[in-house]
Amino acid sequence: MINKISSCPTCGSNKIKKIKRDYSDEYNGKNYIIPDLEFEECPDCGEQLFDREALRKMEKFSPAFKHKKAA
Q1: pLDDT of 1
Q2: 10, 14, 42, 49: least buried by Cβ within 10 Å?
Q3: 10: Cβ–Cβ under 8 A, 6 or more apart, which residues?
């Protein structure tokens, strides 16, 4: 992340931390996992913040960004 976040934009906590873990989500009723995703998370309120690199990785794994192959 280019700018270091020092406090949570949601609750103001200064405990926000960088985390690296498998991240799971759901799209149209389908669960998927993004392995080893790095992002910032607030332990007080659960707010999750994703930098550009994390968002690109999310796009690779999310079914929301899967394009139909041309016939």
Answers
A1: 40
A2: 14
A3: 42, 45, 47
